[in-house]
Structure formats: structure tokens, C-alpha cells
Amino acid sequence: MAYPDANVFYWAGVFSIPDGAQLTLEGAFPASRYMSFVSYTASGQPIESLPDFLIEAEQGENPFLEGATRSEVTNRYTVEVLNAPPEILRDIGSRSAEGPTSILHAPADQPGGPQTILYRIYLPDGGAAPDGGAALPQPVLTLPSGDILRGEQACEALRTRQPAVMAAGAASITAAQYRALITQPNRPDTWPAQSPADWYIQLDRESLLGIYTGQINEDARRSEGGFYPNPDNFYIRTIVNRKHGPVFMVRAKAPTTPNTYQGDETMGEGQLRYWSICSNQSFVNTRVNDCLFDEEIPLDPRGFFTVIVSREEDRPRNARPECGLSWLPMADDGDGMFDEDVTVVQIRHMLGADDFDNSIERVDRQDDLETILGPYMPRTQYLQTNQVEALFPCPTR
């Protein structure tokens, strides 16, 4: 739900800090590409993100800092959780280290109401899934009396058995709305999928639906909302329809990232911390079919990637890494609702470097997308299976 990345593990905590008490989370840094704590309102809107590089290590170094040692990660940390709104908003989607560290503001919407935090681990090292080889962070609650509660006692005082408040309408649109959108008058049965594809930044709900109605404000600006989003990510997406052709090919220059999956001993540099490309279903069920992460996507000598998206039955024989091609599945039931030929393809960029001017994070307006991304802008083509096999010759067994 809500188009998750298939290479990420998510844990949610719903709780209420008693009046006058202090809450901290004690944990160990995981062996992974990225981790963060993000606080949210009851409607799933982000309040504040505390990414890994803003968390201080109790001793030694934070393994997520560039050049830091990653092998045998045992460094511990403590994060203070405050039932108050932040006075200064942190930069999102960047590597700015300004502002307080090891502090997360997680205010309740109303006094005594639920507070929500999501803990994320992106791409645990090989063999370290799901928690990156580190136990999940534990709550430590200090009461006004000075008593310190841990474990089940802390959970009981924090009322952690509260159900999460999740409004389905905040995550997606209704089936009736979607039916109306895909049956626009005087539009072809492939609408709104174009050949070649049109890509869209993360827009507000009105402009997002404008992908179907054609009524996108030319000055539409990037949305930072969504349903429990990761504020350190920025997205572009396109609607695919296999009536244009059974195979959808995406090609672009790949941003550089650290190599961590095989357990590199030090945290490398990169234009991005992480990027991925995903195949999804409709805006109704917001389901992910599968995702590819940066390290598993082969590149040509110029640093370009080629990803093939198709049903399993249409997969070219050379759509495999040893042939220089990656492959993502289309669901057999398409959008999961009304059109078995529809797929949503999405690309995410995380934490761009200060000197990387082609990050999706730099795109504020839809009209600026292609200019800013430059060679990193995905180019697409619909093909037949045998055409892919002819265009990319590769020995087959």
C-alpha cells in the first residue's frame, strides 16, 4: 500500500507520551544503505524526518557518513522524541547537517492523542535483512518522578497498543473516481499513457488526477505531502499501457550511489544515497509489483541503464543482467482494477549531493523536469519482444 519500495523494511510505532515524561529511543546503527525516523500526523502527513547522518554515535563514528567504517557496525545511538512541533524545519531531501541532531519532534494532533513514528531501513546489506543486523530501537521512558521504564513497562505507559489511524482515502482514490478518470470523453483507450511516455513529478492530489483529465496547472509545483511518505525521497512516475506494445523500455543515465549491499567496509560517496525504479499498479490500490535498486541494475560503458518492463510471458530472453538489461514485471491484472494493460512506473531519488544538479529534488515545477534532469531524464519506447532480442544481441542458453 502507498507504493512502497520493495527493498525497504518499515516499522511503525503509535504511542502517547505521558505529560511531563521524557522518551528516548536507544538503538544500534544497522548495516544498510540508509535508515531514518520520521514523525507523522494522524492523517499520514510528515512532520519531521531524522535521517541517519543526523544521528550522533555514542562512541566512534556514524557509519552512514561518507568515508566512515561500515564493517562490524556496533555503534549505538540515542534519539530524543519530543511531544512538540519543531521550531525550525529541517531541509528535506538533502544532506544538510544544519539544525539539531539526534532529536525528533513528534507532536500529537491533540492533547493525549496518538503520536506516530516510522522507522525505515533501506537496502540492508546482503544477508542482514530485515533489520540490518541490529536489534530494533527500544523505548526508554523517564517519568516526572524520575523513574525509568524500559521494555514492556515503557510500552504499557506509552499505550503502544493503540491502533494506527489510517484513512484509506488519504492513500489512494476510490474505484469510482478511478473509473471516471480512465473513461475521459474523446480519449483513446490507451489514455493517459503516451508513446513515448510522459513523466510527472510528485504533484498534489488535484494535479495528480490531472494526468488523466489533462488539467495540470502549468505552474504546478512539487508536492511534499502524500500518505506516510519518506521526505528524503523525490519521485517521477509515468502511466504505461501495453496496448502501445507488450514491452516497455526505459533508458537513462544512472546517478552514482555508494555500494553497500555486498558489505563494503566504508561508506562511499555518490550523487545520490539511493535510487530505484518500480513497477506498480493503479492509484486505487497503490500496490507495488517489484522494484530494482541501483546496485543490481547493470550499466553500459557510458553509465546508462536499460530496464525492460513486461509481463512474464512477454519477457525477452536477453532481459537479464548478464546481457546488460534489467527486467521488471507487469501484473497480469494490470492496474488491479479495470484495465489489465496498465502499469505505473516510478523512479525515486534519495538525498542528492549538494553538487548534483540533476536530482529530482531540484525540480520544483513540472515544466522544468526534462531541463533539470538532462541525461538522467528517462527515455522510453514500446517494443515487441523479438525487437528487444534483436536490438541487444546476447548469447542465450
Secondary structure layout:
Elements: E1 8-15, E2 22-28, E3 32-40, E4 46-51, E5 76-82, E6 103-105, E7 115-124, E8 138-142, E9 148-150, H1 151-157, H2 168-171, H3 175-182, E10 200-201, H4 205-213, E11 233-241, E12 247-253, E13 274-280, E14 288-293, E15 304-310, E16 326-329, E17 342-350, H5 369-373, E18 379-383, H6 385-391
Parallel strand pairs: 5-6, 15-16
Antiparallel strand pairs: 1-7, 2-5, 2-8, 3-4, 3-7, 8-9, 10-11, 11-17, 12-15, 12-18, 13-14, 13-17
Strand and helix order: EEEEEEEEEHHHEHEEEEEEEHEH
- Global geometry: globular
Helix coverage percent: 10-25%
Structural class call reads mainly beta
- What is the first-to-last residue Cα distance? 38 Å
Low-confidence stretches: none
User: What's the total count of β strands?
Assistant: 18
Q: How is the main sheet built?
A: 5 strands, mixed
Q: Taking strands numbered 1, 2, ... along the chain, how are they ordered across the largest sheet? A: 6-5-2-8-9
The average pLDDT score comes to 92
Question: What is the count of DSSP helices, taking H or I runs of 4+ residues?
Answer: 6
> How many domains comprise the coordinates?
2
- Beta percentage is 25-35%
* Computed Rg: 22 Å
Could you please describe the fold and organization of this structure?
- It is a single chain.
- The chain has 397 residues and is mainly beta.
- It has 2 domains: 8-157; 173-391, no CATH class.
- Helix content is 10%, strand content 29%.
- The chain is built from 6 helices and 18 strands.
- The protein has helices at 151-157, 168-171, 175-182, 205-213, 369-373, 385-391, and strands at 8-15, 22-28, 32-40, 46-51, 76-82, 103-105, 115-124, 138-142, 148-150, 200-201, 233-241, 247-253, 274-280, 288-293, 304-310, 326-329, 342-350, 379-383.
- A 5-stranded mixed sheet has the order 6-5-2-8-9, covered by helices on one side.
- The mean pLDDT is 92.
